[in-house]
Amino acid sequence: MEKLELILFQLIQFNFSIMGLTTEQIRIAMQTSLLGEIYSEIRAIVYSYNSEKKIFLIRYYLCREPIEADYESVSVVMTEFISNFKCTEFNELVEDCQFSDSPRSKLDCLDGFIYLRKE
To answer: Mean pLDDT across the stretch 104-111?
Structure first.
């Protein structure tokens, strides 16, 4: 029975690797990538992943217009994030910073929030 369970587990893992990254894999990798990178001007961080085209996007929503330090921060987070995966998992990486004073409910959450400041 244990051998059958191991084979089923390996098949599930194989299917996930064909389908692309799972939401769990993305969220866990993003949580560790954000360590030390959250600062007071960040209102929210969202992500988008297109598994067919292998495009991954990280977007910072800021309470002010983006500055160079914001783009450096999102670049550090992206570098930390992709280091968790094979280089073949991605064809394109997009780093985005936007000012928004819209209510949280009006922010485009794309595929999900990774960080959301209490407001």
So the answer is: 94
Instruction: Calculate Rg over the CA atoms of the chain.
Output: 17
Domain 20-116 has CATH 3.30.1150: no
Q: Cα(67)–Cα(100) distance, rounded to whole angstroms? A: 14
> Tokens 């991605």 belong to which residue?
90
0.90 exceeded by the pTM? no
Give the bridge partners for 62, in sequence order.
42, 99
Question: So where are the chain's domains?
Answer: 20-116
- pLDDT tens readout for residues 38-61: 999 999 999 999 989 999 999 999
86 neighbors 71 (Cβ within 8 angstroms): no
Q: Which helix (H) or strand (E) holds 112?
A: strand 112-116
